[in-house]
């Protein structure tokens, strides 16, 4: 319990620091959307019009400390401001309309990549030196290919040349959004290529990491003792070797789940997928600071929660952590 309490305090302090930086960084950056819009008119705007634009974009004349207090107050009330890129839609509504697409696509792909990669890595590591080691160069090559180039190649082959899948989008415009089979089937159909890109690109990293840990774990004394007892190879592989070899990969998987909310920006932009990665890209182009702040805040909190849950599970999975 003392270990968990110390880590909980650490995560609280980290969350405060991350949220404070999220508030401070846009305010120390040069320029703003309002200044950029004012500059386009080359001095043709009246002082009243300039002031109205600044108020419209939420630029306050209050002190930095007062803005900081207002930021925390709005944060607890769920008010992230008005989006510039999607004006006059509130940031919370923009996030709510896009985060679901990302959560479903990226979380499913992350889990699939982890399960397939660690499963293959476990088998390859157990049967090290066999022909299965030939999988490592192939998966490493696929994971080392530039992400955007791989996504473009997938679009070229399956959407333009073969025309098996749609070129972009998240669902057919003829379908109505809702819990109906037409919309669900259309969403799965449109998400197939982005999912394929993410899963194929992520398998290599999980495979080689798990394979190396299996090779190290197999040489441990407790694994050799289990083999000397005459236990079945399947039991030794799963219960003794893989259970301990997967612990480092489990921590990385928890962090990957935390970054799920941020989406896969390159994939979503290439496929024009209506997820939060595309929204973040448009917000950066439009210098939409409130929207970027909202997205970064959600990503930060999600990563911290995912890591905290991983630490809690790690304490229960590995008794050595409790002893430390």
Automatic annotation (TrEMBL):
Keyword Magnesium: no
Domain ABC transmembrane type-1 positions: 99-310
Single biological process term from Gene Ontology: transmembrane transport
Transmembrane segments: 7-25, 99-126, 147-167, 187-208, 245-271, 291-317
Principal location: membrane
Gene3D superfamilies: MetI-like
Bilayer topology: Multi-pass membrane protein
Keywords: Membrane, Transmembrane, Transmembrane helix, Transport
GO CC terms: plasma membrane
Subcellular location: Cell membrane; Membrane
PANTHER family: OLIGOPEPTIDE TRANSPORT SYSTEM PERMEASE PROTEIN
Family named by the database record: Belongs to the binding-protein-dependent transport system permease family.
Official protein name in the record: Peptide ABC transporter permease
Organism: Leifsonia poae
């Amino acid at each position: 319990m003392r270990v968990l309490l110390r880590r909980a305090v650490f995560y609280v302090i980290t969350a405060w620091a991350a949220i404070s930086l999220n508030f401070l960084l846009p305010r120390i950056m040069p320029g703003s959307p309002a200044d950029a819009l004012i500059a386009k008119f080359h001095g043709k705007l009246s002082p009243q019009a300039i002031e109205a634009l600044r108020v419209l974009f939420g630029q306050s004349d209050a002190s930095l400390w007062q803005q900081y207090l207002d930021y925390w107050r709005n944060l607890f009330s769920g008010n992230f401001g008005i989006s510039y890129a999607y004006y006059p839609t509130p940031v919370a509504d923009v996030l709510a309309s896009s985060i679901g697409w990302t959560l479903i696509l990226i979380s499913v792909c992350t889990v699939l990549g982890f399960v397939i990669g660690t499963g293959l890595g476990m088998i390859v590591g157990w049967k090290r030196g066999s022909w299965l080691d030939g999988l490592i160069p192939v998966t490493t090559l696929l994971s080392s290919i530039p992400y955007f180039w791989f996504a473009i190649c997938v679009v070229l082959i399956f959407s333009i040349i073969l025309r098996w899948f749609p070129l972009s989008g998240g669902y057919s415009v003829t379908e109505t959004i809702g819990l109906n089979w037409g919309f669900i089937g259309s969403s799965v159909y449109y998400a197939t290529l982005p999912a394929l890109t993410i899963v194929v690109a992520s398998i290599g990293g999980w495979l080689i990491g798990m394979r190396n840990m299996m090779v190290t774990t197999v040489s441990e004394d407790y694994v050799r003792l289990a083999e000397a007892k005459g236990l079945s190879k399947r039991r030794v592989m799963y219960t003794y070797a893989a259970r301990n070899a997967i612990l480092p990969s489990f921590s990385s998987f928890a962090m990957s789940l935390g970054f799920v909310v941020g989406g896969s920006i390159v994939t979503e932009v290439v496929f024009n997928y209506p997820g939060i990665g595309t929204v973040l890209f448009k917000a950066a182009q439009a210098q939409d600071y409130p929207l970027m702040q909202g997205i970064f805040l959600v990503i930060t909190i999600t990563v911290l929660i995912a890591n905290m849950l991983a630490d809690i599970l790690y304490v229960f999975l590995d008794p050595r952590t409790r002893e430390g």
